[in-house]
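Meet our chain:
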Amino acid sequence: MANTYASYAPEAYSLETVNTLFRKVYQYMALGLILTSLAAYFTASSSFMLSLLFTSRAPMIVIALAEVGLVIWLGAGISKISAGTARTLFLLYSILNGILCSAVLLVYTSESVYKAFLSTAGMFGAMSIYGLYTKRDLTGMGSFLRMGLFGLIIAMVINMFVGSSMAELYISIFGIIIFMGLTAYDTAKIKEMAYSFEGTDDEMTGKIAVLGALSLYLDFINIFLYLLRLFGRERN
């Protein structure tokens, strides 16, 4: 598959193909976000779940490792599994992530969570629309953002030991910028895949839609979490 948007002439694009794929992508992503929200709310509201998860670190570590495993399975094994299995794995990931994200409902006020979610929706929507309709080649942008993401992870690990509030501030700001950029890049990449696989069967389209939904879901969640860290008001 070509890695450049310039290799496709605009007049050759099939609007129907793109629309069909993105409908599925956004539907799966929306369903994933709904499941994440419900799982987070249920976990935060259940004394049994809270005692099960937060009495020790082991359950949360197991869930986090399971999430990593699901992402690797989806990414590396997508050619060997059916579209239905891929959807199931993505939705399972969304539920597990909701369980982990329940902590934010315990730490931050409801007002902060709502505001962060609405702000994220607006920022994500703007960047996704840009990625969908821009005619610029975003390949170089993707390489730059991946380097930035790698640096961000290193900075977060270091700050876990240093505990600098100023570093936390900059990490949150750069995290928002990086994942906003990744939203545009991932959207453009999904569009490119729609053109590359035009004419394939519904099974392949379904798999591409799941992978696209996962990418954009992760972008949305990370923007949301960094906004909370930056502007969220903690409970007393």
